[in-house]
Amino acid sequence: MLRQPVMFAPAWNDADLPRARSKTATHFLLETDYDVHVSIDSDIVFDPASVFQIAEQAHELGGIVAGLYVTRASGKLCRPTSIFETDVPIDFGTDPTPVPIRWAASGFMATPRKVFETLSKDLPLCHRSEGWRFYPFYQEYPVRSERDPDDWIWLSEDYALCERARQARFTVYLNPAVRLLHVGHHAFRLEDLGQPEIPPSPVRMTYQRDGRYRYERADPTS
Asked: What is the pTM of this model?
């Protein structure tokens, strides 16, 4: 079980996202004795119980555990923000069993202390004389494309953390029972109050070799 209490520490006033995330993770590592670091973006709507669930799972499994949210778009532009393993379908229903994936988005992510402890051994402590010293856990970098070995892809800050963790032999997981909303520009009207709530529908998603996702109706009991 996780130790209590839980500390909530909002972070702001840094326009460089990789540095901002790295500063909060470094503070967690060097200034606290907590077991799990949880990052939640301010534009994510979530059930508080899901926070403790992914934190417990990260602590028990010893790997990164995240919840899935989608990009703030519609139609073909609406895509998952995490990258699954190729050709491995994931059922999003009521089963919270974590499923291994490749890279998770850090807008709703739990990372156990051991991950940061391990990664810090091979990273420099930047600005060590300043009050905002940090290990660049989330520093972006390129990797070769699996679909085209002659091409490179640029890892965003959250994917970069996940790839560093994977290279250090940690596993990245997704909890498919977590339901999240990604808030964007939407003009809600008074009339919206009269609209019936649409319950979450089970769906199966598979990340394909061509880089696209296949969507299917999942087993309602999953």
From this structure: 0.84
